[in-house]
């Protein structure tokens, strides 16, 4: 046993020494997993839930939204990579609402890709949703200790090149991100490829609209918008994705959903698709203000009705 | 539950904390092993525990029946083989054979869809089914042949069958070796504990540092996600896979052996530097030794082995190797992999070509390694077409730029590390000056290397999780 103790002791000493001297790993895998598991398995105590794909999880800051909204709202960003607005995904969003609250709002960041058959598979969110009880426990409660054991990639040691992409996993589901050297045309090629493979189809649109209709029967307000990206991206998506924004907007407004329009020129995208974190904050503040207005209008309508 | 997880760390911690309490009394020891092993397996999918219990009960009863019966012994053995191989067939091969039948009849205009009619439960492959089925079968066959007395204690039998360190990926232990060990208990000596610790550390290092870090590059290449396709790139990938599968499986076995040793038991060696073999025949005495021995004892020798003349020996060899191929997986690729080894072995038997290279052993080792590596292409490929495509790229020597090194720098580093480590360990055992040097400062070397292993596990572990051989 003495030999084992010597090795374990030596390892611990060297571990501490390395942790003191060496910089943190560029990507702490433990914290990344913790981030996704925390948001997927968050408690049901939110008043504002925003759903969508990577443009949403990178483009919406719950903290700035909460600060901007006059009413006391607690929001969560439930965006995942390549998310589609399937019935299951929207049910998942609904499951995060505080059922005792009278002011609940569902915010939908609708991109053309989010209404494709491929996106409706929701592989990214499902992967975290099926995590075992132990995994959930681990990432909810042990990650604060295990983060110190996050591994390095050898390329970090040998490769002196700095990664152009920078991201930070913030609270309540937001990833603030940017490029050191922005390239607003970078994402266009990928999106062109994607939409040559998958198109927005009537099946997915109808399934989505039916589900929204069903949600509208509950006491939940809905706000929808097309997450801003870049003008080139909007033109590309409008021309090849099969997405008809006007139609979706009209249908949703007929159901009582509030549609918000944002102009691409008012925001800054670092890769042509995702918002620079400062623009994401701006968008979140604007959404916060709009949600406040929505609730104010609702309150005044209720009081007017009561007066009558 | 996999060895390289936090769950297992907690499980093993609790197990070894309680082990001294339970190990002294037979019934308590066996019950503890069985319960712990079922918890270990059930953490993956508790429903498939019933399959282990079924397989075990069949062979436990068959053993008892064979022990007392003078007549109908063949029928009892047949029933055990039927039940075990039947379960294996349903869960592992039903989809494959349904596809084969479809492929055969479809060209004649008969449109049948057998795959869709297979019940959903049979589409899931229970982890480790091939391992525990073979282990269970070896018990019954040994009892049938009179090499082993059947055990009457069901707990003892299930301790042998389900013992968690080797339950899901071997080594395949034999009842005649292991039941006696289980009948008593030994408190491991200090040196045994130290050796167990070394095995576990090095096994984890092989798995999480080498195999898991190589898996990303190998997987992306075989999934067609990489942007490189030159010959040099593919040579890098196929050699990387040779080391990935070796380190993955050898790592698992070392951890399993280390855990057993810590309990006071001994599992035989399962890998003995297979890539240093100087013939394909020798390779099979060094790679997955417990499986090779199983096939030798229960298939090759009963088929006549080499006792009935050259031609009969070849026939036995072909059958044994093809069965070994299909044991690994229900796919044409595994049959192709095994067929390639059959060809290698037959050429070796016929020509003894390798003997001419005995004076240049290093070249011989490289030639054998290249043969094995080429065969691994079929083992790893998704389809036969893909395998031939890759082999075509390997031998075409076109567009051999080295740009991939920059992109896959980590992969290159870990591959070089794997090769250096394997060579160092082999030379340390076989090259006298190095052996002498090591033994003169053994403790210091061990301390330094194990500390380095642990630090690498903490700081450079890869992202892979499952062991490759779990799927078999």
Question: Explain this structure to me?
Answer:
The complex is a heterodimer of chains A (308) and B (472). Chain A has 308 residues and is an alpha/beta fold. Chain A has one domain: Rossmann fold (3-Layer(aba) Sandwich), CATH 3.40.50. Helix content of chain A is 52%, strand content 11%. Chain B is mainly alpha-helical. Chain B folds into two domains: 6-185, no CATH class; 191-278 and 358-471, no CATH class. Chain B has helices at residues 6-22, 26-45, 49-68, 73-105, 129-144, 154-162, 175-183, 190-222, 231-263, 280-286, 289-300, 310-328, 332-351, 361-380, 384-396, 403-407, 409-430, 432-440, 442-460. In chain B, helix 9 crosses helix 15 (384-396). Chain B is globular, with a radius of gyration of 23 Å. At the A-B interface, helix 1, helix 8 and helix 9 of A face helix 8, helix 17 and helix 19 of B.
Write the topology of this structure.
The complex is a heterodimer of chains A (308) and B (472).
Chain A lengths: L1 H20 L7 H12 L7 E5 L1 H4 L4 H7 L6 E5 L7 H8 L10 E5 L7 H4 L2 H7 L3 H14 L7 H5 L6 E5 L5 E5 L6 H12 L4 H15 L4 E5 L5 H10 L4 H10 L3 E3 L16 H31 L1
Parallel strand pairs in A: 1-2, 1-3, 3-6, 6-7
Antiparallel strand pairs in A: 4-5
Helix pairs in contact in A: 2-8, 4-14, 10-12
Chain B lengths: L5 H17 L3 H20 L3 H20 L4 H33 L23 H16 L9 H9 L12 H9 L6 H33 L8 H33 L16 H7 L2 H12 L9 H19 L3 H20 L9 H20 L3 H13 L6 H5 L1 H22 L1 H9 L1 H19 L12
Helix pairs in contact in B: 1-2, 2-6, 3-4, 3-5, 3-6, 4-5, 6-7, 8-9, 8-17, 8-19, 9-14, 9-15, 9-17, 11-12, 12-13, 13-14, 14-15, 17-18
């Amino acid at each position: 046993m003495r030999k084992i103790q010597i090795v374990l002791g030596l390892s611990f000493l060297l571990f501490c020494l390395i942790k003191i001297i060496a910089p943190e790993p560029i990507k702490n895998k433990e914290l990344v997993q913790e981030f996704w598991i925390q948001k997927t398995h968050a408690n049901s105590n939110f008043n504002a839930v925003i759903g969508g794909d990577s443009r949403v999880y990178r483009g919406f800051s719950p903290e700035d939204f909460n600060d901007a909204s006059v009413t006391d709202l607690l929001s969560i960003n439930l965006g995942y990579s390549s998310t589609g607005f399937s019935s299951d995904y929207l049910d998942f969003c609904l499951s995060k609402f505080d059922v005792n609250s009278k002011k609940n709002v569902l915010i939908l960041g609708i991109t053309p890709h989010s209404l494709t058959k491929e996106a409706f598979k929701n592989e990214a969110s499902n992967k975290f949703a099926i995590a075992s009880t132990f995994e959930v426990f681990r990432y909810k409660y042990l990650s604060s200790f295990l983060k110190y054991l996050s591994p390095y990639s050898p390329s970090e040691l040998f490769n002196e090149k700095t990664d152009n992409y920078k991201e930070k996993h913030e609270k309540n589901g937001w990833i603030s991100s940017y490029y050191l050297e922005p390239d607003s045309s970078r994402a266009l090629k990928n999106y062109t490829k994607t939409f040559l493979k998958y198109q927005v189809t009537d099946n997915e649109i109808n399934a989505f609209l039916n589900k929204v209709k069903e949600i509208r029967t509950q006491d939940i307000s809905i706000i929808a918008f097309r997450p801003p990206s870049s003008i080139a991206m909007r033109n590309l998506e409008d021309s090849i994705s099969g997405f008809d924004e006007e139609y979706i907007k009209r249908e949703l407004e007929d159901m009582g959903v509030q549609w918000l329009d944002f102009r691409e020129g008012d925001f800054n995208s670092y890769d042509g698709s995702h918002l620079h974190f400062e623009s994401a904050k701006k968008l979140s503040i604007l959404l916060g203000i709009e949600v406040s207005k929505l609730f104010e209008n609702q309150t005044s309508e209720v009081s007017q009705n009561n007066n009558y | 539950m996999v060895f390289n997880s936090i769950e297992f760390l907690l499980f093993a911690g609790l197990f070894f904390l309680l082990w001294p309490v339970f190990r002294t009394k037979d019934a308590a020891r066996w019950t503890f092993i069985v319960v712990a092993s079922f918890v270990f397996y059930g953490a993956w999918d508790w429903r498939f525990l019933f399959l282990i219990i079924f397989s075990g009960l069949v062979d436990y009863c068959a053993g008892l029946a064979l022990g007392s019966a003078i007549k109908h012994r063949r029928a009892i053995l047949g029933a055990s083989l039927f039940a075990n191989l039947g379960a294996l067939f349903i869960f592992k091969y039903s989809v494959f054979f349904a596809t084969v039948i479809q492929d055969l009849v479809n060209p004649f205009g008969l449109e049948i869809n057998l795959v869709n009619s297979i019940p959903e439960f049979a589409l899931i492959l229970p982890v480790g089914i091939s391992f525990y089925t073979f282990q269970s079968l070896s018990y019954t066959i040994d009892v049938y042949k009179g090499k082993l007395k059947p055990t009457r204690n069901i707990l003892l039998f299930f301790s042998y069958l389900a013992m968690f360190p080797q339950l899901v990926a071997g080594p395949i232990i034999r009842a005649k070796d292991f039941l006696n060990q289980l009948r008593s208990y030994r408190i491991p000596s200090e040196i045994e504990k130290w050796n167990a610790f070394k095995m576990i550390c090095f096994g984890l290092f092989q798995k999480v540092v080498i195999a898991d870090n190589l898996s990303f590059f190998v997987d992306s290449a075989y999934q067609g996600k990489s942007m490189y396709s030159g010959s040099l790139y593919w040579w890098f990938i196929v050699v990387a896979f040779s080391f990935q599968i070796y380190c993955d499986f050898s790592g698992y076995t070392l951890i399993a052996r280390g855990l057993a040793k810590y309990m006071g038991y001994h599992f035989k060696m399962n890998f003995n530097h297979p890539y240093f073999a100087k013939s394909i025949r020798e390779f099979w005495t060094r790679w997955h030794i417990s499986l090779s021995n199983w096939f030798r004892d229960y298939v090759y020798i009963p088929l006549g082995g080499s006792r009935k003349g050259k031609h009969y020996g070849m026939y036995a060899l072909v059958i044994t190797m093809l069965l070994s191929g299909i044991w690994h997986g229900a796919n044409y690729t595994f049959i192709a992999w095994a067929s390639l080894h059959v060809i290698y072995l037959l050429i070796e038997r016929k020509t003894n070509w390798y003997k001419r290279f005995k004076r240049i052993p290093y070249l011989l080792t490289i030639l054998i390694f290249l043969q094995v590596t080429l065969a691994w292409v079929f083992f790893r490929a998704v389809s036969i077409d893909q395998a031939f495509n890759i082999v075509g790229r390997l031998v075409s020597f076109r567009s051999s730029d080295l740009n991939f090194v920059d992109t896959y720098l980590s992969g290159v580093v870990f591959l070089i590390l794997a090769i250096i480590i394997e060579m160092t360990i082999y030379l340390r055992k076989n090259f006298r000056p190095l052996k002498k040097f090591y033994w003169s400062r053994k403790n210091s070397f061990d301390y330094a290397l194990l500390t380095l292993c642990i630090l690498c596990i903490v700081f450079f572990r890869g992202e892979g999780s499952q062991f490759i051989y779990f799927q078999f």
